[in-house]
Amino acid sequence: xKIKQKLVAAFTTIALLIAIIGYISVNASQRALxxxxxQASVVLANEIxxxxxxxxxxxxxxxxxxxNDLRTHLIISESNKEFEKLDNIQNYIDxxxxxxxxxxxEEITSFMHELMSxxxxxxxxxxxxxxxxxxxxxxxxxxxxTNKYGAIAAQTMxxxxxxxxxxxWWQEAKKDGLYVSNIGYDRxxxxxxxxxxxxxxxxxxxFLGITKVVLNIEESINLIKDAEKKxxxxxxxxxxxxxxxxxxxxxxxxxxxxxxxxxxxxxxxxAEYEHYFIxxxxxxxxxxxxxxxxxxxxxxxxxxxxxxxxTEQETKEIxxxxxxxxxxxxxxxxxxxxxxxxxxxxxxxxxxxxxxxLSIAAAKIGKGELDSRLAIKSNDEIGxxxxxxxxxxxxxxxxxxxxxxLELVKVNLEKEIADRQQAEGFIKATxxxxxxxxxxxxxxxxxxxxxxxxxxxxxxxxxxxxxxSDELIRQSISIFCTSDVFAELNKxxxxxxxxxVTVSQYETEIIRKDGAKxxxxxxLSPLYENGNIGSIVGxxxxxxxxxxxxxxxxxxxxxxxxxxxxxxIAHEINTPTQYIGDNTRFLQKSFDDxxxxxxxxxxxxxxxxxxxxxxxxxxxxMAEIDIEYLLDEIPHAIEQTLEGIDRVAEIVQxxxxxxxxxxxxxxxxxxxxxIKSTIAVARNExxxxxxxKTQFDPELPLVxxxxxxxxxxxxxxxxxxxxxxxxxxxxxSKKKGTITIxxxxxxxxxxxxxxxxxxxxxEDNRDKIFDPFFTTKEVSNCSGQGLSIAYSIxxxxxxxxxxxxxxxxxGTTFVIRMPINTSEK
Length: 825
Description:
This protein has 825 residues and is an alpha+beta fold. The chain contains 22 helices and 23 strands. The strands form 5 sheets. Strands 1, 2, 3, 4, 5 and 6 form a 6-stranded antiparallel beta sheet that branches. A hairpin with a 4-residue loop joins strand 1 (140-147) and strand 2. Helix 1 (3-64) packs antiparallel against helix 10 (320-366), helix 18 crosses helix 19 and helix 21 packs antiparallel against helix 22. It starts with a helix and ends in a 6-residue tail after the last strand.
C-alpha cells in the first residue's frame, strides 16, 4: 500500500473512531439519564405513598384515643347492661334489625334518632364536622360504635342495618383489636373509603364493643393531585391486585390495568434494586413510557394495604435532547469523515510527490548520472533531505568513487536519514505529549528546587493561584502563603527533602494574587537526580467548592433533623390539645345546663307560694341534665385540662432549651439539663418502640461547648438507637427496647454513654460507621450523615472523642468524651 493510500486510510479511520466514540457516549448518556430519572421518580413515588400511609395512620390514631375515653366506655357499658336485662338478646336484635332495614332509606325512626342523638354520637359527629369544615370535604364518611353483641350503640348517621356482628370487619376487629379494610364503596356514607375498626376494652381488658370509622379516600387522592401540579408527572394509585383507585387521565375506579402493564408493575415488587421500567403503556401506538413503582410499607402501627403508586412519563419527551444530540453527532461524523479524506489526499500529495522525485533522482545516480539534482525548495524535513541529497550528489561528482563505494555511501546515508527522522519525530511527539498533559490537567503541577523556588509550573496555576507560570518561576513557594500556613507547609517539605517520604492529601489554605483565600489539597514527592534528592515535584488541587458543599451538607442534615422533630412535636402537642378542647366543650355545655337549673331554682326561691308541681319541674330539670353525672365528671375534666396544659408547657420549654436561641460561641452548659431537653424533644422518635432510662451524675460540672451542636450529636445518636431497636422489636406493639443515657466526670473530662438494645453493629461495618454517607438502611430513609456529623462536632469542634462498644444480638453503646474546658480547642 502506497503512502498516499495509508494517509487517507489513517485519517478516515480517525474520523470513524470519533464518530463511534460520539455514538457510544450518547448511548451511555441516554442510559445514565434513564437511570437518573427512573431513580428520582421511584423516590418521588415512595415519598408520596409514605405521606399517604402517614395520613391514614394519623387518622387512625385520632380515633384510637376513644379506646381509653371514659365517656365512650360509659355509653357502651350502658348499652351492654340494657341488653343483659333482656330474656332473649338475639331475638331482640333480629326484631330491631328487621324494623331497621324495612323502612325507606331516607326515613329515620325514633329508635334510630335516639341512637344518633346520644352524647357519644354528638361527640363523634362534632369531630367529623370539625374535619369536614377544616378540609372542605368529608374526611370521614361516618362513625359507628357497637356494643359487645354487635348492635349499634352510637352512630353519626343512619347505617344500612342495625346488626353488625355478622360483618367481617366486626369479627376481625374483635379478634385482632384493629382491622383496616381495603378500599370499597360505603353505601351509607356514599363514598369510596377504607374502614378503620377498633376494639374497645374496659380497664380490666374485657371486650366492650367495636368502633368503626369510614375514612374517605379523597384525602389520599388530593395528596397525589398536589404532587401532579408540583411535579408535572402522571400518577396511578392502585390496589395490591392492580385495581385503579385514581389516575391522572380518565379511569374507572377499581378497574384492573391492562394485563401486560399490570404484569410488569407486579414484577417490580420482586426487583432488588430498580423499581422502574420502560414499556408501551395502555396503548402501544402511543410510544414508550417510563414507569416508576412504589409499594406501600405502612407507618408505625398501620401495616399498609399493599397499595401501589405508579408514575408515568413519555420517553420521547425525556430523551428528546439526547435524540437531537445523536442526530447532530451523526451529521458531524459524516462531515468530519469527508474532511479527513480530503486532508489525507492533500497531505499525501505534498509528501508523495517530493519522495517520488527523490526516488527517481536516486535511481539516476545509481546508474551513474552524477549530475542529477532535486528541484525541491521547502523548509521542512523533505526540503532538508533534498538539500542533503544535492550536497551528496555534488560531492560524488567531484570524486572518482567506485560504484561499490557509492552504493555503500547511499545505504549509510539512507539509514542515517531514517534514524534522524525517527529520533526527531520521537522527541517532537514526546514534547507535544508533555505540553498537552501540562496544559490540560486542571490541577497545578510544579517542581521546586531544594531552596523551595519554582523551576516548573503548569498553566493551571493562573486559575487556582491567580499567578501565571512565568510569574512563579524562581519565586519561593511562600509567595501565596501566610506565615502560619508556610510554617506548617515547611514541615511537610522537610519530610520530603530530609526523609524522602511522599506527602499525600495535605489540606491547607493559600492566598491568591487577588487576596482571596482558597482551600487546596497538596501532594509532594521527592525527585531524584543521580541517586540523590534534587528537587520536589508536587500538585495543587482546588478543594474550595468541596469544602463549601461539605458545609452545606451539614446544614441540610440539620434541617432534616428540625423537620423530623417538628412533625414529632406537633404530634406530641396534638394529643393534650385534643383533651383540652374536648374537656372545654364538655365544661361549656355543662355550665349551660347548670346555669339553666340555677335560673329555675332562683325563680322558685322568689315565689312566695311554692307549689308541688314547681318542685317537680325543678327535679325533672335536674334529672334531664343528670346533675350527679356532671358533679362527678366536671372535676375530672378540669384535672385532665390542667394536665394537658402542663404537658404542652413542658414540651414548649424543652424545645426552647433544645434550640439555645442567640448562642453563637461556646458557653458553659449543664449537660444533664440539655440532654433531658433533647430527650423530651425527640420523644416522638422513640416512645413507640423504646423505654428511656437516665443515670445522670448530679455533681457533673458545667462544660464549655456549643450547645446547639452538642444537642445535634445527642439527637442523632438517640434517633440512631431508636432505629436500631426497631430492627429488633418492630413497631413495639409486643415489646419495647431500652435506651440508657448516663453522664459522669472523669478527671478533666466528662463522659456521656448512650446504650441501646438493638441488634449490634456487624463486624464488616464497624470501620465505616463514622464515614460520610455510610448507612445500613435504605437510602430513601437515611442520608448516612448522622454519625459523620456527630464525629465532626465532637472531635473537630470540641477536641473530644467518640467511640462505641457493640455486641451482636445485645446492642451498642456510644461513648462521648469531652474536655470540661474546650474554649481553646
